[in-house]
Amino acid sequence: MLSKDLSISLTADRFPLVRDIGKNQTDGTYTHHDRILDFDVFLFVTKGKMQVIEEGTEYFVGEMEYLFLKKGCHHWGRPLTLPGTTWYWIHFNSVVDEHVSYSDHSPMPELDYYFPDQYQYRFVMPKHGTPAFHQTLANRLQRLLEDYGKPRENGMTLISVQVYQLFLELRQAELSRIAKKTAGKPDTVAGRVMEYLTQRTEEDFDSKRLSDYVNLNYSYLSATFKKITGQSIIEAHTKLRMNKAIHLMRSTPLNVSEISERLGYRNPYYFSRVFKKVFGEPPSTYMSHFYKT
Hints:
- The strands form three sheets. Strands 2-9-4-7-11 form a five-stranded antiparallel β-sheet, with helices on one face. The chain has a four-stranded antiparallel β-sheet with strand order 3-8-5-6, with no helix packed on it. A two-stranded antiparallel sheet has the order 1-10.
- The protein has helices at residues 134-148, 155-181, 189-198, 207-214, 218-229, 233-251, 256-262, 268-279, 283-287; strands spanning 9-11, 17-25, 35-36, 40-47, 50-54, 57-61, 65-69, 74-76, 86-93, 122-124, 128-129.
- The termini are far apart.
- By secondary structure, it is α+β, with helices and mostly antiparallel strands.
- Helix content is 39%, strand content 18%.
- The chain is elongated.
- InterPro entries: Homeodomain-like_sf, HTH-like, HTH_AraC, HTH_AraC-typ_CS, Tscrpt_reg_AraC-type_HTH.
């Protein structure tokens, strides 16, 4: 029997909607409620230790540790939570557009400008751990709790946006921690490929030159890059070239034909077709959006 997926995913185009926020402190030994919820839960323990079981997986959440519990899963506990344990909790619903096909890959950092699918991806939250900013997290949660209790216009929306930012920072801190642990290791295949591509935005793609640069077979490079980034090498190179095109539109007086030539496109009409395919409109129209002197 396959184990149930306990991970919680958020999307880049919808912030989670907060249902309620609270703070608890146990007087005696505490047992987590036996329940199945229709919303996700974020817990952060500031004192003591909490015990909770999710679909048979047992967690002990210590001081300055967090835990995400997934909606639709069976949660329960034993009388193992220590007396005096104090924790904050946030109940929230993640919102997904059912008409969007979300990617499991976030846009690569080198792709700076907006693309039509820029927000159509999901990301997994770290399940359990100690955030790098744990010393300030309790204060932030206390301010959220205080704001939650104040009636104000757009109050819950403001709370939800702040919680979303907190979750994003939590995830980024965990990614940074992992990156530090792997520092000093050889560059990943995707990183080497992107290094090559970013240096060659003004020329056509050449698979042989890339293979020679990375010293790996192109078929292997292509499959590995696609697996890691969710897009092909040629797609990434094209987007990088279109990024460069937008940079030239913003920072130079060059016209479409001159930009096309600068980027190594022999035919400005072909460049315009590629640009429209990526951004949904021709470069001449895109240029009209900018404020230029």
